[in-house]
Amino acid sequence: MESSVFEAQSLFYQSAYSGCIEFAQTHAPNGITDNTSLILLVYAARAALAMGDIAGARQLLGDDSEQPVAMSVLLLADFMEMKRSGDDAGSEDVIQQLIMLLDVVEPGELAAEIVRYQVGLALHENGDTKNALETLGVIGAGGSTELECIALGVHILLEIQRVDLAEKEYLAARKQNDDSILVQYMEAWIGLVRGGRATQQAYYVYDEMSQNTMIAHTRNMVPSLVGKAVAQAAQNDVPGATNTLNEALALDPQHTLALANQGVVQSLASDVTVPEAESTTNMYAKTEPASALVSFWDTKRYELEQAVAAMQ
């Protein structure tokens, strides 16, 4: 793998999306001219989509790209747009077009892995989790060798509360490449879901990631710091989580995920009232109204209110 591709890929994996885009634009200033620039801009476009910037993703790749890997990203952009507008029929049609791309990419290549990831992501976002996992090759048997697909599959398995299957996939992936950023993140995700002592290992993963020289002391470091703070909060180290989030917000004061987690951590601190914490979290809600994190916060708040009412 070209070193520039590795760096863009690493930034994308660490959720340093703005950094990934800037890096790709710097190293591929003339657009898609060869395979290296293609992959760089594919990662940049995927980063833009992760940030919800559909127009930005299309601009990075150009709407007329004929490369299957680029087409998969553009089709995912179409899918996201149709989901936003409530066009279910259009969403289904785009998914079928994505699936067809699987037949025209060469198995074993990075491009094929990215295409498969895009198909799995669209299927899952469309509510077809079973087919998403089958497409990704992640069914708890550890059969896939595509780390991006395994990572997405593990994330989905954790979301549907199949920690047992997620752990089997992680252990199989670790045998392939225990140094991979994605494998380390899988360990952290599973640790946070399992809780207890496993959260300590999650903390170590995020702490190590935050010290990566590629992102250290820049705003690209913020997502890793947020993960570190979540691990600290899971260990009931509220002061430590607060300090870590303050460090993150000093690097990027408007980072919505850091602000949201700051609200959660504030609610855990004994000297901060819930309304104050909610006001911080609402700052995130205003910028990311459809965020799963906001929905999760609202759901848990409602469940707590119902539980308290039932005890009275």
Can you describe what's shown?
This protein has 312 residues and is an all-alpha fold. It has a domain at 196-311: Serine Threonine Protein Phosphatase 5, Tetratricopeptide repeat (Alpha Horseshoe). Helices cover 74% and strands 0% of the residues. It has 17 helices and no strands.
Query: How much helicity do the residues have?
Result: over 70%
What order do the SSEs take from the amino end to the carboxyl end, as H and E? HHHHHHHHHHHHHHHHH
In the predicted model, the low-confidence regions spanning at least 5 consecutive residues are 283-290
CATH C-level class of the domain at 196-311 is Mainly Alpha
Q: Secondary-structure map with pairings?
A:
Elements: H1 3-13, H2 17-27, H3 35-50, H4 54-61, H5 68-85, H6 88-101, H7 110-125, H8 129-136, H9 147-159, H10 163-176, H11 181-194, H12 198-210, H13 222-234, H14 238-251, H15 256-268, H16 274-287, H17 292-311
